[in-house]
## 1
Amino acid sequence: MSPEAQARLTAIVVDDEELARAVIREMLKAHPEIEILGECANGFEAVKLVSEQKPDLLFLDIQMPKLDGFEVLELIGAEIAVIFVTAYDQHALRAFDVNAVDYLLKPVASDRFEAALARAKQRLGEPVPAVAELAASAREPGHYAERLVVKDGTRVHIIPVSKLDYVEAQDDYVALASQGKKHLKQQTISSVEAALDPKNFLRIHRSCIVNLERVAKVEPYGKDSHVAILQDGVRLPVSRAGYGRLRAVLDGQGG
Amino acid sequence: MYLAAWIPLAAILLYLLASPGGLSVGQALVMVLPLCLVYAFMCLSAWYSCRGAPLGNSSFQRLALTHLLAAVVISGVWVAIGKGLATLLASFDVFRGLGRNFSQALPLLFVSGVMIYLLAVAMHYVLLSVEQSQQAEKRVIEARVLARDSELKALKAQVNPHFLFNSLNSISALTSIDAGRAREMCILLADFLRKTLGLGEKTVIPLREELALVHSFLSVEKVRFGARLRVEEKIAAEALEYAVPPLLLQPLVENAVAHGISNLTEGGWIRLEVRDGENRGGDVSGPDDAVGELVIEVENNFDPEMPRRRGTGVGLANVRQRLTARYGERARFDVRTEGERFRVTLALPAEKTEGAA
């Protein structure tokens, strides 16, 4: 097979260290079929460039300014083959959970790099699961999100969980309510629930998660459902099962 | 000591036998002296019953029953001995009438015997608990010393693996871009590692050496971060010879790089200040208060929006523990966050290293 017949691939390299990007750049020199569309030095840039350019392949560092590698993946939400490149080995399991093509450790060995590239090419023909969804829900056990990230056009909003009031499911989206504003994100409410610390957040309804600190009171509503009233007056539906869980938590706090 | 404690008891007994007991002083004296001596030894048996029924895990009823029973038996035996002694003495002319007089005093003697025995029990419990608390205290101190030693060993000579891997990655990049700089960085890294390993062996080093380690660390990180890493230093020259525990400052600077600069797109700054803080608290009285203080401040900017990385605080806690282990109350450790500035201040007694004038 001649090189011309090979599919051309596009790639973006994301790393905050210039020298680390240089290594990838150099290793890609041996692969003329791969075109580097651009390089990014932080999470924000990466989200923007990847959304605009839609590359086939992404070389992604994990510890970066602004957004970490997993948050970047969560926000780009595209079908993309990701190769993590990092000095930290403790994220390997999480990388596997988000269906990354490979996980390269710095300093990067060229045979590992070639193997990763070969796997990426193989993967390109296959359907890719929703990376964003996976990235949002992939967490190490016992560790919960400290902040949620949402993309609004080209802007990225960062919502610390302490400022998250409630989460509402809306068709394929969830609305994250924080400080009087609602941010829409393409994610299931179950995966948002999984990311949040159950000590502070409770699923009170099929379509609703509430920050327990915001609940002012709970009142009966209709025959066998209730309504939770938040400190700012927002009323949220509480299902029968949700009411049971809510009572258990609130009574537990009282005693 | 123990027998001396019996002198007041003997005096009381003497008084009891002589006045309500109806014995003459001579009679009472001749009875009380041997009786007290015998009872002093008999009461030592309380030690066994106290050991057998420790205060902590026996019910009150059981305790009361055990000791009362023992008191009655021991006192009974004692009174019987007294009776025998009295009968024996009464056969001598001098002590005629003692037998009868003593028989009248028997209930009194019995009750006294019970009381004295119970007193002995109480004393034994006090002694036992004192002994126990001393032992417990000793164990706590031993454990603390052991924990401190192992802690110090564990805390020393730690090279952060991520720092090492990232540096190696930089070298790997430089080999094809600029072989000369690659070699230079190899040497910088080797220099840092050699210093770290060497200093870890010592208990204190001059601040000068710790600063050299910090500079060595920063020159490696400057290759990685380039213009993103800016360092500002203000070091009091007279502080350079003060003794500090090794690897006290370097982890703080490393922390500033990991949680500050590396999260900032445009890079960040680290401010390192060392002051000779003489006359603590501005008090300028007398030579007693003139213990100088070495004040070290490490400040950096950071992105408050970034979530705290796992491992944040471990390095700081480590430094704090080592300071406390070595200086106790004489050292201070203060961490402050103001907006996007993070500052660690530590103060320790300004002591010259041995050998340095």
## 2
Amino acid sequence: MQEVAAKYPGRVTFVSENFGASKLADRYGVKGYPAVFVDDVLVAVPRDFGYFGEVEGTGRYAPWRNVDNQAKFKTDLTRMIDLILAGKKDVVSREPAAASAGFHEIAALPKFTLNDLSGRPLTVGELSGRVVLVEFWATWCQPCRSTLQWLGQLKHKYGDNLAVLALAVESPADKIRSTVNSLSPDLHWAITDAATAQAFGDITSVPTLFVFDRSGKTAGVLYGAPPDLHERAGKILDALIQ
Amino acid sequence: MALNHIRQASLPRRALQLLAFMVILALPAAGQDAASQIKAEADRLQQLLKDKPISVPGFGDLNSAVANALKATTEALSAGRLYLSLEQLNQATDLLHGARAAVDSAQAVKKGGLPAFESEWGKASLVLAALDQKAGERKWDNARAAIRALSERAQSQAKPLLDGSRGFATSTQPQDGLFNLGQAQGEAEFASFCASLNLPRQAAPYPLRSMLPELLSLQAKTNAAFQPPRSIELHPWFIALNSTLKLARELDASKFYAGSLYQYLEAVGQYGMLDAVAPDAPRQSGLKKAIAAMDKQLAASQRDDSIAQIFLERAESQVAHADGSVPSTDEWRSVQVTIEQVLPAFFAAQNPVSPREPASGKTIDMTLVRWPYT
């Protein structure tokens, strides 16, 4: 983006804002990152850059490691800037990103079928009647490690009232197993497949935590690992498990 | 810039106490000039070091490193090099806080593991988030650009150090992340201290602007220069240079343009050092004259050229050691790069970049919303 901005010296300023502190993102209901705005128009949403379990071709610039996708992003961005500088903001506002700004957040625990790490089937049915916490994590995600350790403590605190699912994405199986062995065995550990990731909506980052109440309704979704993650998740759980 | 995403979270009591202390620190001391403020702060840190010496296994002799930085602070002050004294004080503050955090919380974190570290990290994050928000609201209208630059650079360092501490703790041992965590607090404290300095601008403001075109150009030159054998022989230099360029771009993206210019010039100097040859005796003599001439030029300037003064003070100290010792070859190389490349880059940066289509006059922001810790 800085390279694109540099093509417009004195006319386009590159600005970086933090997820969670962006008024622009709030205005558009963007719940993940990265997101890109030109002027005050949303031109790229998180799923454009890929998400876990994506269907090939649905993320406009995914996979991002592909240089052709990066070039396409630069071309699109340049076109949006040119349009806005030419006073045609309305044209940009009708582009797909701005139109699809609303972030898809699931309303209830979706149906899925996975095998846990020991090969035992893991289904939604066996979780019914309990508060369920689902964390999507990866072996390469450093904050995930401390979050997983903390989830073990939560499980210990709430006992059978709480079911915790730790679903690994985009991680080698051997590293997943070595991580699990060093952490709490009381959680339900599984390797996520594409269908399950898709069922949970736009998982564009790890950790992502979902909390569902005893009836399966979504009680909270927490993205990333901000410093107050444990506090926020703890409040939701305390309210659900009296 | 960073950390604002958590500013609405409630602050624990200990965090509030620390925040209150740092806010008090940020209040200008009535009637005290900047040099006295710096001296008082250096004395305060010296006393802290004396009262509770540091001993951190694996970190070498940090006690001496902090003491040396504080000594260099007061020596620079005595020589009238105020900005250099601040750079030295920055180093001392950073190291002292890092070491103190590593010592004071080590046992608790060793015992409690990652959750204990995470607890420390969370508390520090909340304090830093509050300070970061304050930093973004600072009014620098009457401040010298150099003070603003030093403050912005330190503030922007806090975020990657905070992030790095978490990464280090999870990748190695939880207690290993404490040093970086303390450093982050030290940087934020130094940024607040700079903002408290009683040093009003006395000349016309320097025309600060985005340095993005220059930064991208220098990044491209750096990438092109990264070829064997230099990429191997000078690997640490390239790492430092790329790190400086990254920081400069972060500052620029946050519209911290004084900090961005400061770090751009730092990068110009680091890039120049890749090829710099040692000046011979006649050239050394010429460099001394150039320093004196530049000193006069900056003193007579009708514009706030204090950011250039930072680099000139460094050069002056490199050719005139307080103990009378002879400058090293690397110091002469550095002085040469400062005179021939860094200061000219400073003066070139005062010119506005030419808009591609000046007729329209419309300017817009392009905003990236991203995860703050990477």
